[in-house]
Amino acid sequence: PAGVPRKPGMTRDDLFNTNASIVQTLVEGCAEFCPEAVLAIISNPVNSTVPIAAEVLKKAGVYDKTKLCGVTTLDVCRANTFVAENQGWNPNDVDVTVIGGHAGITILPLFSQIPNASFSDEDLEKLTVRTQFGGDEVVKAKAGAGSATLSMAYAGYLFTENVLKALRGEEGIVQCAYVESELTDAPYFASPCRFDENGVAEVLPFGELSAYEQQWFDKMMPDLQKQIQKGVDFVNN
Question: Which residues of the chain have pLDDT under 50?
Answer without folding.
Answer: 1
